[in-house]
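Morning. Coffee machine broken again, so started the prediction first thing and wrote up yesterday's gels while waiting. Chain of 452 residues, entered below exactly as on the submission form.
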Amino acid sequence: MLKKFLVKNSDFFKPFICLLFAFFFLSLLLPALASAAETTTSAHLIKYAADGQTVITETTVDYVYMKNHFPVKGDGVTHYYHQGPVMEGDMWDPTRTINLKDQGTVQGTDLKDLCELIGGLSTGEKVRVKAADGFFKEFPYENIYSPSLNQGPIVLCWSKDKVEVPGFSDGMKIVFMSQVKNGDGKYVFGNQDMKECFPEAYWHFYKSGTQDYPSSSGYTVKYVSEVAIFSNVPAEPSWELELSGAKSEKISKAKFEEGANCHGLEYTDNNGKWKGIPLWYLMGWVDDEISHGPGAFNDSLAETGYEVKVTAGDGFSKTFSSKDLARNNNYIVACYLDGAPLPELDAKGRPLAPLKLVGTAAEGGNKVGNIVKISLDITPAPPQETLTITGKTGSKVYTLAEIKALPAYTDHGGFKKSTGAIVGPYKYQGVKVGDLLSETGGLEASDSLKVT
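Came back before lunch.
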């Protein structure tokens, strides 16, 4: 009877059988996936202004860069220890002998060196070391730049027992390399050391029931992915320049200043030396789909004549002809005056920052300060069809015109419907996939190709 029921209702059990297999394979994969997701080999270094949001500088470095560019801390032989909670007797354990956590023969890079790479920090500032899972610990300036011998340097470790990440499965990991041995000859950063070396606000505690136990082991952040400096440097005002024409763009302060330092021109008048980007460069950013490079400025479109409106934050604006502005370096949108960002107000108390139109052609009433928007009176261009190729050596975006410029290939082809009916063959013209892949590393016999 049971056999009959199973055979008769086999379709009923199919979903459950599939789920069973799915859970089985998932149980095999989860440990490997968890390990791969947690172990880190690089760290994002970022320095914030006093508001905790404005980014002053940032970069990302991997452990190979750290190993090759900074002194390596740890000799690969000496073991270093932190201390877990001591639940009987003196919880601070001045002897530094109870519940020790062996960190192994770790090697790594001094946290101070990583901080210096992004401008360093000063007294009263702190560093947050964050793990890939979001857990973090914070350390004040003094403990990074002038640690006591009992504490030793705070080290971001990328090697343990001569095995580097990702083989070092807890890496990258913070370890304090104490320079003082306990009575057993071990280099321990213990709970008493934490009490003596760190301000109370930075102590780490392990909670058991209603009792909090100090534990220096809590400082050993593993899977470190970010080192962030929270500085006391005042945040500079941030702004965006709105551009509109065939398309719309917003250029950030950082991007505009980068452009001024790369393509910038200078102009000197009685107020000082101005520096910025020629207005026609900015026109070229939005006059068609090409934003940057030799072909960015559309000369033929500018020759036909269209209006360019430069607008200030209070709504004041001036309008120019594209024919007058085309490749004219005498109209400069300045972001610097005498090497510094523009002041909020000019000498007469009028709004000036963030940008001002200056130059020999922008005299008299043509000068506009406090610029927030530049508009080109042209019809927005239709969306451009593109194809993105991602390969071994990077990505490339092809426009339809670029694809048509490749060697053409013509042949016949068709396809078979699910019903079995044959459609075609028809004559098609296009380009070979191999030609599209040539600029991103090509395709080998062992590779696969995904089309979406």
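Residues 10-38 form the longest helix (29 residues). Going to sketch it on the whiteboard this afternoon.
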